[in-house]
Amino acid sequence: MTKQELRQEIRRRKAACSTEERAALSRVAIANLLSTPEWLAAETILLYHSLPDEVNTDNLIRHTFQHGKRIILPAVTGYDLELREYSGEEHLVEGAFHIQEPVGDVFTDYSSIDLAVIPGVAFTPAGARLGRGRGYYDRLLPRLVGTYKIGLCWNFQIVKDIPVEPHDVLMDSVVC
Length: 176
What we know:
Blueprint lengths: L2 H13 L3 H16 L2 H5 L2 E3 L11 H9 L3 E8 L2 E6 L6 E3 L5 E3 L3 E2 L7 E4 L3 E2 L5 E2 L5 H5 L7 E5 L20 E3 L1
Parallel strand pairs: 1-2, 1-7, 7-10, 10-11
Antiparallel strand pairs: 2-3, 3-6, 4-5, 8-9
């Protein structure tokens, strides 16, 4: 299956799942993420504000921030993702793709990020990731050398095989 065919298949799977089912699956995925040793040990975490067709991370961001962990969020700038530190809901603006993005200084201390939670269209159990096709995370992930990377998805986004290219960065684990 080509990447485009796989994206279409996952779109079909998402469409077959009701809003309530996706919300329930999001709660399961978040609970599973929160129980990982990597999450428990991490002090600085790269998260993402979810799109409507992704595991919902809105409450996770607020909860994690309230419990004293440092949260880094991406902001779309042209064809790249800039990272910025999250400092509360009042410091967010609607950015590209109607995603809430933090304002403030660009964060470039990549080596201080203990854990990166990464969205994707599909993942394999071995950590291969299929994105939306614009390459935002393909350009970001190589900067996260030494950072543990967890792909976060719904269970129906796990597939047997994804065409992998030499530049693709594998996830260390996948949680759903």
